[in-house]
Amino acid sequence: MYRYDEFDQTLINERAIQFRRQIARRLAGDIDEDQFKPLRLMNGLYLQLHAYMLRINVPYGCLSANQLRRLAHIARRYDKGFGHFTTRQNIQFNWISLTDAADIMVELAEVQMNTIQSSGNCVRNITADHYAGRARDEIEDPRVWCELLRQYSVLHPEFSYLPRKFKLALTGSPHDRAAVAVHDIGLRLHHDIRGRPGFEVIVGGGQGRTPVIGNTIRQWIEPRHVISYVEAILRIYNLYGRRDNIFKARIKILVNAIGADKFRKLVDTEWEQIRDTDLQVSTAEFERINAHFLPPDYENLTDQDDELATIRTQEPAFDAWMCSNVAGHKVPGYAIVNISLKAPGRIPGDISANKMEHVAELADQFSFGELRVNHRQNLTFVDVRQVDLHCLWKQLVALELATANIGLASDIITCPGLDYCSLANARSIPIAQDLGLHFTNSGKLQQVGNLTINISGCVNACGHHHVGNIGILGVNKRGKEYFQLTLGGSADEHASLGIRLGRGLPRAEVPGAIERIVDTYLATRLDSETFLSTYERIGIEPFRKAVYDPVNPSRRVA
Amino acid sequence: MLLTKKHQNTVDSYIRIGPDDSLPAEGALLVTLAVWQDHWERLVRRQELIGVQLTSDEHPEIISDDIDHLDLIALEFPTFRDGRAYSYARLIRERYGFTGELRAVGDVLLEQLHYMERVGFNSFEINSSDPETDFEIASNDFTVWYQASGDQRRIATMLRLGEKDRG
Fold first, then answer.
1. Which secondary-structure segment (H or E) carries A253?
2. I want to staple A495 with a disulfide (CB 3.0 to 4.6 A). Which of A181, A183, A278, B16 is the partner?
3. With bands split at pLDDT 50, 70 and 90, how would you rate the model's confidence at B109?
4. How many Å apart are CA A21 and CA A488, to the nearest integer?
């Protein structure tokens, strides 16, 4: 992974000093809260319901074992002993005091981490495929470009006061694990017909109260021009994005208002003027950064299918974990291992300081001292020897980190909701806990197979409910919490937005409703059809009927 | 309070002229876009300093052909959150080639000065009890930048290549 050189380090150190001064100015009353707010937000510090929340960037999901140890230390010393991984591959601490924030910046800078622009109306932490550089289906590794774009966007003098926040996501695989179509800019590395790598540029996707699947405004652009092209997009957005209404300020609103064609023309006209400037990525800089992403010292190994098959037959729990949590690796004899942070009944994405330290030890022992945070709020070891899989699994079992549910119905994305968030309308965490326990107890997890359930506690959609196969949105009606269900959303290369099923349900009725949706799928699916395929084939009506007009009156919940 | 790029307080010598004001025969003038357009022929013939102030809704492309006539361009920040003028400043400097005084006016905050300097502003109207000291602190927060943006600062990629040359 990328390691700071003296210039990167100096900038981060200087930022920590600057923020200490800004906090001091606030505490001394030299600046008021209104003026301080954008400064603290651009350092990731939110004022939530109960305390300050600090959001720390994990750039495109890449984290070292030592950085994770430092996060454990911060959790213990400055928070309540745990942290929360988010859908943007970041980690959040929920119980931070303003007077500690400057010290935490220094602690982070010491391990080459920062909180710069993890909030605010600026370019946020860049996210990427958590299997980048390792996935079997990958065409090109996007991480060098992620790092170039990270540096490009940090403290950008022109684009730090955009109309609204701005999110970039990158992937280099045909199977999209980074949800690039629902970002302000999604960049997909692929090959043109002559086999040359380039980026497809998708603009104006997003979730929130106006969910939109992004438009491809360029099928292929040479990678060395990607920064100038992003700059052209950002400039057009900065100049013409709406500033009169916070709910209409995202780039998707601008793209929709003028149309993707006109938007592309504006961008292309701007780009022509800047494409051949210093923004072009030099070979020297590319090579310098690429040297950080060279493959680790893999051993010359072979795949262990037969050996593993024997153990899998003997140990069904290991087999279930292998089925759901382990993915193929581009190097023979190695595997990608996902560590679920979705144990039944637990808060999705939360992890204690103790477990962080154990995971760091395991990363050192089994995966070259590195790990990834993925946008479904789980952790990933990307370089595990297949011969070590059973040993690693046993250690994860001992830590209660071997929940075999990656991609399954209990692998639920959840925002912090009204338990923490000042924007939320409803508590999303208890719904996730209810459902996680429900599916685990029902014994149907493996039978149902791949199914994404995403929960947001308000229309801002931090829990990605629009793109869950089943989405759950918390709303507040006359002081009471209700949950609206959507079906058919997807965040992958066939991205789609869920359709609302019907009226909102009280919390107690949600597990039963989800159960009937799942039962409808199980009763209707053909062969190995996924939930989404069945939904697309039969439409929403059978599910609507199952939830709101069940045949068997004894199972009526409302 | 007006500051210049030399980080010194200075008196604003410009007289502000809006649409309802008559044009004085003498003195440096800072006029609105409407005044500039309505009295263009008279204003460009005057042998005095002349500046135009643009609101954040007024794209400077409108005056890009007039750059050579202008000594000052002032860009308004109606609120510190409105970042359009950062882009305008870069266009004015890098695309339209303006080398005169580029002034930030309106809701100009100390903590934004380093960004403003980098995009090309070289004078600032700012409220502060000790602006020189404040300015000195705020514009020296960083010694490393990642983005080339028209000022002459050496950015990280240039410094890195320099490192390599020395090695």
1. helix A251-258
2. A181
3. confident
4. 49
Q: How far apart are CA A277 and CA A227, in angstroms?
A: 11
A5, A31, A157 ranked by CB distance to B160: nearest = A5
Q: Which of B87, B36, B35 is nearest to B59 (CA)?
A: B87
B143: closest CA of chain A, how far (Å): 7
d(CA B49, CA B30): 9
Q: Which tokens in the block code for residue B117?
A: 């300097």
* Contact flag B109-A5 (C-beta cutoff 8 Å): no
Query: What's the length of chain A?
Result: 558
Buried b / exposed e along B10-37 (16+ C-beta atoms within 10 A): eeeebbebeeeeeeeeeebbbbbbebbe
DSSP H or E stretch at residue A169: strand A168-171
Which residues lie below 8 Å from residue B84, measured CB to CB, with a gap of 6+?
A238, A239, A243, B56
> Residues of B with CB below 8 A from A8's CB?
144, 156
Contacts of A158 in chain B (CB under 8 A): 83, 86-87, 90, 115, 119, 147, 149
Confidence band of B5 (pLDDT split at 50, 70, 90) = low
A87-A89-A94 Cα angle (round to 5): 75
Are A142 and A189 a contacting pair, CB within 8 Å? yes
Q: Give A22's contacts (C-beta < 8 A, 6+ positions apart).
A: A31, A36, A39, A40, B111
Q: At residue A539, does pLDDT exceed 60?
A: yes
Domains of chain B: 2-141 (3.20.20.70)
Percentage of the residues of chain A whose pLDDT score is greater than 70: 99
Q: How many CB atoms lie within 10 A of CB B41?
A: 7
Other Cβ atoms less than 10 A from the Cβ of B42: the count is 9
List of domains in chain A: 6-110 (3.90.480.20), 135-292 (3.30.413.10), 305-398 (3.90.480.20), 413-555 (3.30.413.10)
ipTM over 0.90: yes
Average confidence score pLDDT of chain A: 95
Angstroms from A338 CA to nearest CA on chain B: 34
In this prediction, residues B31-41 reach a mean pLDDT of 96
Decide if B86 and A238 are in contact by the 8 Å CB cutoff: yes
Contact A22 B111 (CB under 8 A): yes
Token pair, residue A10, equals 């100096």
Give the number of other CB atoms < 10 A from CB of residue A317: 12
CA distance A356 to A362: 10
The answer to whether residue A203 scores a pLDDT higher than 90 is yes
